[in-house]
Every structure is written in C-alpha cells, then in structure tokens.
Amino acid sequence: MTVRRQLIVRSIAIAAALAAGMPGLALAQAKLKVAAVYTVPFEQQWVGRIHKALKAAEARGEIEYKATENVSNADYERVMREYATAGNQLILGEVFGVEAAARKVAKDFPKTAFLMGSSLKPQAPNFSVFDNYIQEPAYLSGMIAGGMTKTHRIGMVGGFPIPEVNRLMNAFMAGAKETNPKVEFSVSFINSWFDPPKAKEAAFAMIDKGADVMYAERFGVSDAAKEKGKLAIGNVIDTQAQYPDTVVASALWNFEPSADRAIKLVKEGKFAAEDYGPYAMMKNKGSELAPLGTFEKKVPADIVAKVKAKQADILAGKFTVKVDDSQPKSTAK
C-alpha cells in the first residue's frame, strides 16, 4: 500500500471513529476545557488547593482553565450553567450550600462532567463528588500539638460545624489526646468560611483563657497566635513560611490526585459518577503532614518518633483514623 493510500485509509478510520461518537479520540485533538465556580476567594484554604491543582494542569498544557471566585449562593446556578453552555467539558467547585441547584444543572447537561465538593452521594451519570478526607494528617498534627502545649489547653476555631470540618477537628483532638492525656480543648465556630478578623477575635478569647496552642482551621487564628507569642497548627495548606515562629505543623490536602484523575477520565470518555473521597487519603498522596521546617529541632524527639511510627502504621494499613463527623465540643472549663 502506498504512503498516500495509507494516509487516506487512516483519515477515513478517524472520521468514522468520530462519527461513531468516540469522545476520547475527539478530545485528544485539543486541550480539555475546564471551569470552576467558587463561593470564596482563591486565597481561601480549601478552594486554594483546588485552584492550585487545576493551575498545575493548565501549566502542563493539559487543559484550558477558567474560574470565577466569590460567587454568591444565589448566583451559583447561573454561573455554573453559563460555563456548561459555553462548552466546558469538566466543571468543578464546592456546592455545600447549593446542592439542589448544582445537581439540577448536571441533569440538564448530561454530557458535561461535574466534580464537586459535596457531603452527598454521586449522581449518575455525570456528577462526581469529592471531600477533604485529610483526617489522617490531622491526627498526626494533633499528636504534635499535644506534645507542644505547656498549659495542656488547646484552642480550636472552625468555620461551620459541618462533617467536612468536624472530622478533621475530632481527628486532631484524638491525636493530641494520644500524646497528652491531660489536654483540654476550647472549641468555637465563626459561622463563616472566610472572616479572618472574626476568627482572630475568637482565638484571642481562647488564648486569654490559657490556650497556648491554636488549631487554625480558618484564616486569622495564626495571626492571633503570632501576636500573643503562642503556637498554631495549620489545616489544608502550609503557612509556616508566613508564620515561621508560630505554625508548628499542618495537615495538607493535595487535590492533584483527584483533579488529574477526572481530567484523564474525561479525555478518555470514561468519566462517570463517582466518590473521589479515597483520593484525599495519605496512601493516594491526597494528603500529608507538612515538614516541621523551622520547628524541626523544637518538637521533642520522642513526639517526632511517635508521629513517624503512627504515620508508618497509617500508610501500612495498621492504624485507621476514625472518621467522626459529629460536632466537637469544648472540654476545657
């Protein structure tokens, strides 16, 4: 067969495949169009990790990425629908306050893939869900906090008492109890996902009552700890570079495993409704304990040894951190 005839046959085969509806082949010819809808600014911890993973895929040349931040709940459906209508093939975001509206959009666009932060189940055929199941490094960071407190009192400031927050706080508390059975906790929620001044004031109140280590589930807590010369434990992102003398350790959420899986499946035409929760686990590199960095020599050696041993047990499947979604309560008097 001549080269020219080979090219003609190959062209006919590709045209036939496209006509037969092979989306994987079709999408391989161009970058995947990806969009995200966020209710908070890009700098907020949770959304920041999603944004970072998608920007990395964009930098590798795998996707075209557009995103809108600070979208109100009332406006969420409209923005989501506009992205779907514009031909974006994968849409991401967090829909905790707009579940019904988001799932309605997904039903109206069955050929579009949706991967959304949600407390509920996947919705066939095209609505997958994810969550920050980072209770494992949260437990390890709690072990460090228990070993660092001198007053045996830890303050904890959260956004809302929803399962996604509660499970991390409960895991942290259990870890702290393992290394320090005497520890007591002050717990409060600011009922906002992004209000650093309010979180800071809540932290000040706890420090005034004796807390010398703060669990910074929200922005603003580490600022209070820094001003008062106390310590803080980070959540979702690592802010030690900004607080080198304050933030001891952090439980990190890595969204890359989830984002990369969704992008790959959409390109292959194999995306389906699925729970992406497992891809946030340590064994899948979806979460980790941040390096101790500036506190490497300040955390007691016996605590570091216990943390390393526990981490090894988690990765080997010998220890399972309990998922407790109930609202944590203060134990300090």
Secondary structure layout plus pairing:
Blueprint: H1 3-19, H2 23-27, E1 32-37, H3 45-59, E2 63-68, H4 73-85, E3 90-94, H5 99-108, E4 113-117, E5 127-130, H6 135-148, E6 153-158, H7 163-179, E7 184-189, H8 196-208, E8 213-216, H9 221-228, E9 231-236, E10 247-253, H10 256-268, E11 287-289, H11 301-315
Parallel strand pairs: 1-2, 1-3, 3-4, 4-5, 6-7, 6-8, 8-9, 9-10
Antiparallel strand pairs: 10-11
Features of the shown structure:
333 residues, alpha/beta, Rossmann fold, 5-stranded parallel sheet, 11 strands, 42% helix
Short description:
The chain has 333 residues and is α/β, with parallel strands linked by helices. Helix content is 42%, strand content 17%.
Characterization of the model:
The protein has 333 residues and is an alpha/beta fold. It has two domains: 29-130 and 255-282, Response regulator (Rossmann fold, 3-Layer(aba) Sandwich), CATH 3.40.50.2300; 135-253 and 297-315, Response regulator (Rossmann fold, 3-Layer(aba) Sandwich), CATH 3.40.50.2300. It has helices spanning 3-19, 23-27, 45-59, 73-85, 99-108, 135-148, 163-179, 196-208, 221-228, 256-268, 301-315, and strands at residues 32-37, 63-68, 90-94, 113-117, 127-130, 153-158, 184-189, 213-216, 231-236, 247-253, 287-289. Helix 6 (135-148) runs antiparallel to helix 11 (301-315) and helix 8 crosses helix 9. It is globular. Residues 1-28 have low confidence and may be disordered.
